[in-house]
Each structure stands twice: as C-alpha cells, then as structure tokens.
C-alpha cells in the first residue's frame, strides 16, 4: 500500500479527535489481525499491578472523552 499525504495540520482539534475515533473503530473491527508489540505486555502487567494496589483509577471511554473535552476546551 502506498503512503498518502493528508493535511492533518489543517484540521481542527475536534476533527482530529473524530479522525482518531474513526481510525480506532476501524482498527478494532479487525483486531484479530493486529499483533501487539511485546513491550505492551510489560506495560499492561505494570498497570494491572498498580490498579490492584489502588494506585490507579479507571473510567469508561465516554467519561474519559468528556473529561478530555472539558480539559481541552475550558
């Protein structure tokens, strides 16, 4: 597949977020074909241990998006 030029710098922040969501949705639709790099396992293990130890909190994606929007647009 050939690389293509895309004027990302001309997109608004909201358009960039929309593009990232579209790309992510497409990627997870084919997640069985994706291979994670080996270093992902170490990071996931570290984060799991931190979560178990009460050092991290989690939120669902909708809550996270709202928090990001408030932080960026306030």
Describe this structure in words.
- The protein has 74 residues and is mostly helical.
- It has a domain at 37-74.
- Helix content is 61%, strand content 0%.
- It contains 3 helices and no strands.
- It has helices spanning 13-29, 38-52, 61-73.
- The longest helix has 17 residues, at 13-29.
- The termini are far apart.
- The mean pLDDT is 90.
What key phrases describe this protein's structure?
single chain, 74 residues, mainly alpha, 3 helices, flat
- Morphology: flat
Global Rg: 16 Å
Order of helices and strands: HHH
What ranges have pLDDT less than 50 throughout 5 or more consecutive residues?
none
Write the SSE topology.
Elements: H1 13-29, H2 38-52, H3 61-73
Task: Please sum up the structure shown.
The chain is mainly α. It has a domain at 37-74. It contains three helices and no strands.
């Amino acid at each position: 597949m050939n690389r293509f030029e895309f004027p990302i710098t001309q997109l608004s922040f909201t358009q960039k977020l929309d593009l990232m969501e579209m790309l992510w949705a497409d990627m997870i639709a084919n997640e069985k074909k994706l291979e994670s790099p080996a270093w992902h396992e170490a990071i996931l293990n570290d984060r799991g241990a931190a979560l178990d130890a009460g050092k991290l909190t989690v939120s669902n994606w909708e809550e996270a998006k709202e928090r990001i929007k408030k932080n960026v647009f306030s």
